[in-house]
Amino acid sequence: MGRLVLTAFVAVLAGCGGGGHDNLAGPATTDSGTQAVASDSAGQGSANSTGAGATGDQNTATGGASSPEQEQTSASVGGNGGSPAAILYSSVGALDGLQGCMNRGLYESPTDVVMTALYDVESRSLGKGVWDLTSRWAAGTVSFMGTQARARTETVVTTGFVVQTTLTEEVTEFYQLNGWTVVTVGYFLDRNIPDEDPEETYFDLAVGESRLSVASSEGNDKSAVHTYLGRETISVPAGQFETCHVRMTWPADTSRGYSDRWIAVGSGVAVLDATSEGVRRELRQASINGQPVSP
């Protein structure tokens, strides 16, 4: 979790001299009133990116404009076909391997779920800052451009760094579950952005296994290779966690290098992110529906 807006954050650094990532987020306005570019391509934007346009769910539509194509339903999409998995708050009860780092209950919960996480971020080019993330999984499904999907909205407030400004960014992902794969069919920023070739995030990789997710959006090749490097125990300000180490690379743009993520076993919280572009993000604290996340 958090990779959606992390790509936008790294792209902000690109506008300030750092490296770029996916075009997931458009321009945002800083608290000083000046525009900060939050995508690889510059453009004009509003104060904050709006939330998803799905109606009938305040967590999915956080101040966003409604789309006539999106209607809330109570059906589930994908999954195991049985009862929703339990939400985990620690490693207790987690499965083995990479599956144990998914926290499947978040993705198929019959009720809204809110995760908050606070991170210390350091950029090789911009120094240190703080990343305040809120992730909201909405109950039920919506119709996203004619496709039934579930919705997850990520809002991040970034403060600090040498520019000493505050940047707020928001993006909603529309996804389906296919076994242990999260299939992203599109996004909502200030408009609906479909994925012509849906992105896939895999939670069933064996140790050392790599798998290519062929993905494109608005003519941009977003294909990525996901590699599961195994379980590792790491220490961050939030504590010592057993994690799943996953690496992403992009064959169409080798200049982007790699992005590594260490995901907490059980809770599925991203404990540590590190990119070859010099951005490092460490978890300080996290909660799910108000309950603290622990190792």
Q: Which properties best describe this structure?
A:
2 helices; disordered N terminus; 15-stranded antiparallel sheet; 295 residues; mainly beta; two-stranded antiparallel sheet; single chain
Concise description?
With 295 residues, the protein is mainly β. The chain has two helices and 19 strands. The protein has a 15-stranded antiparallel β-sheet that branches. The chain has a two-stranded antiparallel sheet with strand order 1-2. It has a two-stranded antiparallel ribbon with strand order 12-13.
Write structural notes for this entry.
It is a single chain. This protein has 295 residues and is mainly β. It has two helices and 19 strands. 6% of the residues lie in helices and 46% in strands. The protein has a 15-stranded antiparallel β-sheet that branches. Residues 1-5 and 8-80 have low confidence and may be disordered.
Choose one word for the global shape.
globular
Largest sheet: 15 strands, antiparallel
What is the overall number of helices?
A: 2
Helix-strand makeup class = mainly beta
The count of DSSP E runs of length 2 or more, i.e. the number of strands, is 19
Oligomer: single chain
Distance between the termini: 17 Å
Mean pLDDT over all positions = 77
Instruction: Provide the gyration radius in Å.
Output: 18 Å
Strand content: over 45%
Helix content class: under 10%
What's the helix-strand series? HEEEHEEEEEEEEEEEEEEEE
Low-confidence stretches: 1-5, 8-80
